[in-house]
Amino acid sequence: MITPLTEMVLEAEGVGELVDTLFLKTLGRRPDPAEGQAYQSLLQKDSTRGLSQKTNAFPLLLENAILMFPGRITFSRGRTRSRRAIARDIEVGSSPTRALQSEWRMNFEDGLWALINSPEMIFVP
Amino acid sequence: MNTNTINLNALDRRKFLATLGLGAAGLAVGGRSAFAAQKLAMGKADHCIMLWLGGGCCHVDTWDPKRRGDAVKRIPGSYYDPIPTAVDGVQVTEHLPRSAQIMDRIYAIRTVHHDTINEHAAAVNRMHTGRTTSGTVIYPSIGSIIAHERGPAAEGVPPYVLIGYPNLTRGPGFLGAKDGYLYLTDTEAGPRGLLPPPDVDTRRFDQRQRLLSELRRNYGKRGNRDAGVENYDAGIEASLKLAGSSFMDTFNLDREKAELRASYGGEFGQRCLLARRLVQSGVRFVEVSHNLNFINGTGWDTHKQGQLNQHGLIRELDNAFASLTLDLEAHNLLDRTLIVIGTEFGRPPEFDNEGGRGHQAQTFSIVLAGEA
Q: What is the value of ipTM here, to two decimals?
């Protein structure tokens, strides 16, 4: 599934810009030198298999197209997906995007996790 | 009348008038002894396990039996027959047979009273914080006070664990997150807040912690010292310490023998067994909640038809409580652990129009076991 974050990753021109945009989107500021360094090393790992190489266009188009059909996500009658799969989606979240290599994607997720749990990101319900 | 302040007015006046009569010298001596602070009696317990019977456990049907009544004819009295216990002259209901046998380790305080209204939330708060509410102050619960005063009994262990749903009345109030509780609602799963998702292995977990430490360190360097953020961050610090540690093994009930687990009984019993393990690992205060949906649907709040299956609840309590007491004794922990059976109020001996009972805070029972 293509989320705004996946789009952000795909549209960035390089790791430096990606880290800046990520911080701006989550914390509303640019990273300071130490943070920038830490995140760039995180996201530059396996760089040949991560950001710069994407899987071919067809799965991307398919993911986007599926979103356009109503009833796909949760309230379909189960013709496209089993009830158990839908329940799992609600519990665990939908499957990760195929546009990014999974190892790189997992590093990105770890970085995002740290930002969400930082003292600057506090939700007051 | 303000129930929170000790009514010293009458005493003061009498003392004042008496000491006046003794003259100046007498006033100095009499005055000092009259107003000297009372030394608080301190117990020897190192741990406390509070079994919380939510809904209001009927004392006349459990620990303080009266003559037999009749729900159909609406004659006030106990719903069950009493049985003798290990202590001469003390009786309890017939549905507490195991507890009756070990009554020598148990102290039933039958004269508990409060005049917070007979409404659940207010009474639960009263029993957990010891006070009525006042303005916007959020008072700390007894568990948080103990956590604050004594901390955990071992390294790498939280001081206060709640086995039940999180609730403001169990919280640290103005003491802050450091004296808050770790909670879990399912003994099978362990505390959700400390378990990483299944696809996060140790390598990823360590990576996450490193990045988060980096961000937290930088935040500290920028010099922002907001109390609310500090409080939140203290919670993060505590969970990071606990999450990967050996403390998590405590929740693994499969380590216990099957016969022991069976003697404790169902989910409530398993929670009590977990409480014993937590105490062993160094947790100072554990609250074990008896959920509303255990057994009869209404929990201990036996209005109307909830009364019919109350005996099931009492038997479950009996098994769990007796097993816990004996198990702690077998592990040589009973002389250092205080077990409290708490509830927000009792229930009157009169029956309502469908055979159940209402609420009664004027007199009810709180039960202690172990070391006071």
A: 0.74
